[in-house]
Amino acid sequence: MWELIVSLLTGGATGLLGSVLSGGVEYFKQRQKNAHELLLMAAERKTLELEIAGSERVAIIESESSQQIEESRLLATSIRADKATYSNGNSPWLVLVDVVRGLTRPVLTTFLGVFMMVLWFSTEDAAIHSQISATVLYIATTCFFWWFGTRVKQPK
């Protein structure tokens, strides 16, 4: 009889020990699986971040490209408008308009240059010389970049 009781107790203890060990193994397997899932999520997050960064870069490039296309279109329009004439040779008044229009920039540039030189040599005041120098630099850079910058030829 004692043998039966000992068999029951040792069998129950062995079953309980096996159950605890199985639970422990299952716990460690689940922990390892969770760690693996966390690594996969981190990798997926990094991939998504790279995809988002790539999409942002593509959007920036597309925006810059469309802006450059628009600037080129505006420059082409400016060049066409600059070449436009009003006369076809029939009206002397429209020929005069074309002549005045064509001479405006060179005459204005020459006049402003001569005017600044007259101001420069007609005064001895250093403050006025400094102001004239700053103004001449401003006007010269404006003329150079605006007037001559609009004459860039577009490739065909």
Write a concise synopsis of the structure shown:
This protein is an all-alpha fold. It has 2 domains: 20-84; 87-151. The protein has 3 helices and no strands.
Describe this entry's structure for a reader.
There is one protein chain. The protein has 2 domains: 20-84; 87-151. 87% of the residues lie in helices and 0% in strands. The protein has helices at residues 2-83, 92-122, 126-148. The chain is rod-shaped. The mean pLDDT is 80.
Q: What's the arrangement of secondary structure elements?
A:
Blueprint: H1 2-83, H2 92-122, H3 126-148
Helix pairs in contact: 2-3
Please indicate the percent range of residues in DSSP E strands (runs of 2 or more): under 5%
Q: Report the strand count.
A: 0
Structural class by sheet pairing and helices: mainly alpha
H/E element sequence: HHH
Instruction: Domain count, please report it.
Output: 2
Q: Mind summarizing the main beta sheet?
A: none
Rg measurement, Å: 43 Å
Poorly predicted ranges:
none
Distance between the termini: 109 Å
- Please bin the fraction of helical residues: over 70%
User: What overall geometry do the principal axes of the alpha carbons give?
Assistant: rod-shaped
Number of helices: 3
Determine the mean pLDDT.
Answer: 80
